Amino acid sequence: MILLLGFKIQAQDCSLSIRGKIIHLENNEPIEAAYVWVIEAEEGAVSDQNGNFTIKNLCRGNYTVTIQYLGHKTITDSIKLESTTFSKTYRLEEEAVGLQGVEVHGHRDAVQTTTAVSALYGENLMESRGENLGESLKRISGVSTFSTGNSISKPVIHGMHSNRIMIMNNGIRLEGQQWGAEHAPEIDPFLADEITVVKGAETVRYGPEAMGGVILVNPAPLPTKKFSKTNLNLVGGTNGRMGNINLVHVGGSDKIKGLGYRIQGSAKRSGNVKSPDYIQENTGVSELNLSSSLGYSSSKLGVEAYYSLFHTELGILNDSHTGNLSDLQNIIVNGRPFADGEFSYDILNPKQRVTHHLAKLKSHYHISESWKLNFQYGFQLNHRQEFDKRRGNLNEKASLDLELYTNTVDLYVNHTHKNELSGTWGINFIQQANSNVPGTGVTPLIPNYDMVNTGLYAMEKYSKGPLEVEAGVRYDFRNVSTARYINQELRTADIAYQNFSAFLGGLYHISPDLTFNSNLGSAWRPPNVNELFSEGLHHGAAAVEIGNPDMVSEKSLKWINELQYDGKRTHLEFTAYLNPISDYIYLNPTGEVYTSLRGTFNIYEYLQANALFYGFDFAGSYEFTEKISGYLKGSIVQAKNTDDNNYFPFIPSNRMDWGISYDFSQATDSRTNKITLSNVLVAKQNREPDFDIAPPPSAYALFNISYNKEFNVGDDKLNLGLQVQNLFNTSYKDYMNRFRYFSYDMGRNVLIKINYEF
Amino acid sequence: MSTKSNLYLIALAVASLFFSSCKSEDPVPENDGELITDVTLTFQEIDASGNALGAPFDFTASDSEGIEIGSAPDVETVMLTKGKRYEMSVDVYNSVAGEDITEEIRAEGDEHQFYFLGSAFTSSPFLSYEYNDDGAELIGLKGIVTVQQSPGVNTANIQLLLRHALDKNYPGADNPNFQDYAKAGGETDLDITFPVVVE
């Protein structure tokens, strides 16, 4: 009896546990597979991929905990375990000694945030090779594209695109002519080792305009020790007879410790693409891209220099360029180009030629163990030329010719302490000069302008065991001055904007498998120069667009919640968001026409209204057996004009994507050998605006098949991929493609993708 | 060139890039080269053997504002006489840039073609048109207009359409009153409707 009682008391006391989270001191990234050992209890645990661990069934008392991880200093902590569960965050510091031959593979979050984040890397990124950024990102649920034909596509996050989302090229905000619907982001996806999509409002961290989300295009970190690896990608596609080559070489110096470099180049050429029944004339693309970086890092100091060049020339579908409203109506009624077309690689007018240079210099210095000072300077030059079908010598001249210079300076400090608090405080400075290159023979659509934006921000994060809470504030002020001639008369304007933004977010690991995060962020976007000052004919679109110089900044609040489950065989992600926006700017058809000797044109004006965006994304995968697995993902976006109680144009319709894979490889073989059949289902957009020049296209279903196999060639790795997109050569139109008015989308495309790593 | 002067040139190039990146260029007024402000139809009466009779007369459509919103072009009414034959020439002018666009159209005759539509040529035709350009190319800068002897109505419209970058070999594209002109591809550079009265 006494014995039994004693046992019972002991059992009660011994149901305590130690929970914790292990992260890198340097960057707060979670550490997977760190070893935790409780000396007195002789119990141990290994941290999961979120860095979490739990040691259960401990009794009251004092314990010594050791935490070990390869290449890091061991932490020894004394714990007094009392009535409640103990939990703590441990920050491991990297050891200065270089470990030869140790390579850490796997995925690391590019950004430490409590908001919903999805990334494209590894096998999925490899499958997307050969596609542009927008197309690649369609693989992430909640991300779709807003496109102009088959070669221009802009990523859309939760219904927002262009200047409402931000793209970061290796840490520098990409500043191109993003305002135009037919202006694709000036970035080569081949420079990335990982592309991350932040779905929440991140104005505080990244500055104004990061309203709907942020896309981070990041190369892999540079090696800091002797290293050499070269990667060759070859992609060929039957539709458009596309060829794409990419070569990356990454090296680490043997002589100078901490010195590493990367050099990358890619080239792409494709001709006229084929819709199931005809060839789309003048839809070729020619692209040439380069990037390189050089970095040095020691225990105290890190320096990185980076340069990237993006150059593209692309043709615009012949019949899409219309002279006036009746031309536009004629082709809409026809539903496809008038001619059947012939294959050609030639890129003729109308066409676009864009060159984007980006250079950056980044440095950090560890002032002390817990304080780090960072400096980053970025220079960008974007040169965009658009050529129209014109008469005589004018054909050689661009009808839109813009040069945009951007300088960005970031200065910030990070602090990470052994206690639960970490944070970033900084100042961000952006200066821009946009000029119309004279001699186009066309009154410019937008004026020349200068913009200066200064932002001050601070963010703090508190982590304790399974809980992380984060908050931040930012204040920005911006000045824009514009000048241009209209009918030989100089018109200038000076406008100032300022705004305060803030966010509050939290993340909680309900269990090692289940995580919930929630983030509420405010964001703002000053009106763009085209929204303020457009006045005149938008050539080719048969539209006259009128801006409003008195417009105020858009202000938004985005609340995003995500539940993630990472089981042994099941992975689930569910995201829901609510995004009210005040003074949302949109282009509204006035219903009036403008008459000239050229014919009539629809008149559109920029208006502001209150908007409510909300929706859901889901993504899940399940391993039925060791051989067979399946996935399902989808998204729903609703966007209402709450002032007029109607819908905005060009918001993605409901879409879903599912697939089944069969793995041929042996259980002991980690090399890929997999076939996947997938099906994309896109609904008709029933939430259509009151006015559209053509009704939304019907729903469609596409089937795709892909096979990937990895080989070893000596010490080298070879990956072969065969993909068939639009397997049944289905004729379809997508609501989010502006050329749905003029043409069906691309037909079947068979692609061969080779990746050789040596 | 010495290394020193090379370095100097590089430094100069970098410096100029830096300075140009700090301030936008002063705007320069553009003359809209594509703009058409005046279109003139000149009629010269001719006899059966093509000889000119009397003095030529013309009718103009003008829009001096170019693409300014809110103004409509001024279009004169074309007055013709029943039963007569005219040689009609079209002149196109850009008064903003001071350019004669007629010449440009003639020089690019393989890419341009006028079509003559509107009720005067189509639904209740009392006018007929034949291309009579100087070269072999059908452009429509010069043509023969014949007015019926006793038309059922005496007022109608002439729609003057200038198509650019069309497929001239498309079946039917050689018909000056080709209503399916859109099927031959290309885009519209001019689209003016003149009222016409015959007496």
Average pLDDT of chain A, rounded to a whole number, is 89
Q: Alpha-carbon distance between the termini of chain A?
A: 71 Å
- How many domain regions of chain B? 1
Radius of gyration of chain B: 24 Å
What is the overall shape of chain A? globular
Largest interface: A-B, 60 and 47 residues
Distance between the termini of chain B: 81 Å
**What order do the helices and strands of chain B follow?**
HEEEEEEHEEEEE
Number of strands of chain A: 41
Q: Tell me the quaternary state.
A: heterodimer
How many domain modules of chain A? Answer: 2
Question: What does the model show?
Answer:
The complex is a heterodimer of chains A (758) and B (199). Chain A has 758 residues and is mainly β. Chain A folds into two domains: 91 residues, Immunoglobulin-like, CATH 2.60.40.10; 641 residues, Maltoporin, Chain A, CATH 2.40.170.20. Helix content of chain A is 6%, strand content 56%. In chain A, the strands form six sheets. Chain A has a 22-stranded antiparallel barrel. Chain A starts with a helix and ends with a strand. Chain B has one domain. Chain B contains two helices and eleven strands, in the order H-E-E-E-E-E-E-H-E-E-E-E-E. The longest helix of chain B is centred in the N-terminal third of the chain and has 18 residues. Chains A and B meet through helix 5, strand 24, strand 25, strand 26 and strand 27 of A and helix 2 and strand 11 of B.
